[in-house]
Write a structure and sequence with these properties.
Blueprint lengths: L2 H30 L3 H21 L2 H17 L1 H37 L9 H12 L2 H17 L4 H4 L1 H16 L6 H26 L13 H17 L1 H13 L6 H36 L3 H38 L6 H16 L1 H15 L5 H25 L1 H25 L7 H28 L6 H26 L7 H4 L5
Helix pairs in contact: 1-8, 1-12, 1-13, 2-5, 2-6, 2-9, 2-11, 2-12, 3-4, 3-6, 3-10, 3-12, 4-5, 4-6, 5-9, 6-9, 8-9, 10-16, 11-16, 11-17, 12-13, 12-14, 12-15, 13-14, 13-15, 13-18, 13-19, 14-17, 15-17, 16-17, 18-19
Length: 514
């Protein structure tokens, strides 16, 4: 399967997951708004989500996929399957113990994550209760991530890319069905999250078995491959999860700013995650196994070409998305969330955070496209060093900007730190001779920027002209749809006229390759 076809497969299913994720956030906004119950749930869910991003989907996949792909290519399917079974068993044992410890330590852990909650009576206790319900999700989703790594290495991206849809659908079902039966809507959503973890694990267990790689538990053995896997997970954690770590820092500081600040950042990040997930996650997921295979085969020219095309595609899809979110962020937030307990004040605060997050959107995706170049060469240390520098910068910027800009300053700090992260990764790859910007990318990158700028100018003019007509939710939805359609059309025309893209090239890129 070609790189672009793989990205399209992952991106298509990720788009579905992000759309259902937005529907889930709309339900949360309706039931909880930006209340202290919503703050408590978002912090409770941030705990397992953070460790999942750092140690499961991030560092674990970065370490596991190259080793599994190498074992598959060198020793055959049976040896690769045994390695995956041993890795799954070891992960299950370690995570079960970790979950048990966190369940016991939860009240103090919540205080460490959101110390500002102590100012509201009962808020830390509620967050701890919800976190205890949510935290076992980490065990199931981590085992799911391992199964996804196996499928991705086999070139089967669809089933794994579709698993987040289950989280959103089962979570929405739990919120709707259990709210009348639980103390708060937060409890209902927490139980829905717990059930979703089980559903995701079972879904991929069936998919892996159908692929001929059934992962029944094996007797734990500390083989050389498992030792290598363990050594690479630790330094890869921060390198692969810098975005989540930055959000964690934002959560800690936001809990001390004002009631609702955590929720504003969460709702804004959910919208920002739509293009980030569809493009960034898809590129990173498809690029890592491809680079690993090309580098193992000694085809370094092909690896450099794959890297350039991934960066080109990332810029082509994220620069217009970032410009659009900065131009029409408020209408997007209003149409998606402004109902029930979520009013105009919440819309304005969330839209301001969204505009700040959008500044860093291209950088977030570039990092997703650059980090696989290190991981495919079995270098998990360099990204973590760069991530450490970016985190330090993020903390400094948070503290500097939170005073004058409140929660918006925290979103802006995350965006700026991500740009620094991306630039340093590019410079390091270039210095080592592992990456050079080819003539096509040098020619097209500035033209993509120009096309996005033309689209942004058109959107600003149309927004001023049409949005005053959007009275009522129905008309607002129609006007927003018109703005989105107009923006896409203007960018497509501008990209073609400036030479940023040649649409005739798209069809050959999507063809399946042997």
């Amino acid at each position: 399967m070609s790189l672009f076809r793989s990205i399209a497969t992952v991106g298509g299913f990720t788009m579905l997951s992000r759309v259902t994720g937005l529907a889930r956030e709309m339900m949360i906004a309706h039931y909880m708004g930006a209340s202290w119950v919503a703050d408590a749930f978002f912090v409770a869910f941030r705990f397992p989500n953070l460790f999942r991003s750092l140690f499961a989907e991030g560092a674990f996949n970065a370490a596991f996929v190259p080793l599994f792909a190498g074992r598959l290519a060198g020793d055959g399917a049976l040896a690769a399957q045994m390695f995956a079974r041993q890795a799954l068993t070891g992960m299950a044992v370690v995570l079960a113990l970790f979950v048990a410890v966190m369940e016991i330590a939860m009240p103090w852990a919540i205080y460490g994550l959101a110390p500002g909650f102590e100012a509201v009576p009962g808020k830390i206790e509620l967050a701890a209760d919800l976190a205890r319900i949510c935290f076992p999700y980490l065990l199931f989703i981590s085992l799911t991530a391992l199964q996804a790594g196996v499928l991705n290495s086999l070139g089967r991206f669809a089933a794994a890319a579709g698993t987040p849809v289950l989280l959103n659908v089962v979570g929405m079902a739990g919120l709707w069905a259990l709210t009348p039966l639980t103390p708060t809507p937060g409890h209902a959503l927490a139980w829905g999250t717990f059930a979703a973890g089980i559903a995701q694990f079972v879904w991929l267990a069936v998919a892996v078995r159908r692929a001929g790689m059934g992962l029944a538990p094996a007797r734990p053995r500390l083989t050389p491959e498992i030792r290598t896997l363990a050594r690479r997970i630790v330094p890869g954690a921060l390198g692969a999860g810098i975005y989540q770590v930055n959000l964690l820092i934002n959560t800690i500081i936001a809990s001390t700013v004002a009631n609702g600040a955590v929720s504003y950042l969460n709702y804004a990040d959910r919208i920002n995650q739509l293009p980030l997930g569809v493009v960034g996650v898809a590129i990173g997921t498809a690029l890592l196994p491809l680079l690993a295979r090309q580098i193992k085969a000694g085809d370094l020219d092909a690896a450099r070409d794959s890297q350039n095309r991934a960066l080109e595609l990332g810029l082509l899809l994220t620069l217009p998305a970032a410009a659009a979110l900065m131009c029409v962020g408020a209408p997007v937030v209003q149409v998606l969330f402004q109902r029930g307990a979520f009013g105009p004040a919440e819309t304005q605060a969330t839209a301001q955070a969204l505009s700040a997050f959008a500044i860093g959107l291209p950088a977030f995706v570039l990092v997703k496209a650059l980090v696989p170049a290190f991981f495919a060469r079995e270098d998990t240390r360099t990204p973590v060093k760069v991530a450490g520098l970016a985190m330090i910068l993020n903390v400094v910027l948070n503290l500097a900007l939170v005073g004058p800009l409140a929660h918006v300053g925290m979103a802006l700090a995350t965006a700026l730190a991500s740009w620094v992260n991306a630039v340093i990764l590019v410079l390091l790859l270039a210095r080592r001779g592992l990456f050079t910007v080819d003539a096509r990318l040098r020619r097209r990158a500035p033209r993509i920027v120009l096309a996005a700028a033309l689209m942004a100018a058109a959107l600003l003019g149309l927004h001023r002209l049409l949005w005053p007509l959007a009275e009522g939710q129905g008309l607002a939805l129609l006007v927003l749809a018109a703005l989105v359609a107009a923006g896409m059309l203007v960018f497509a025309l501008a990209a073609q006229l400036t030479g940023a893209v040649r649409w005739a090239e798209v069809r050959p890129m999507m063809r399946r390759r042997p």
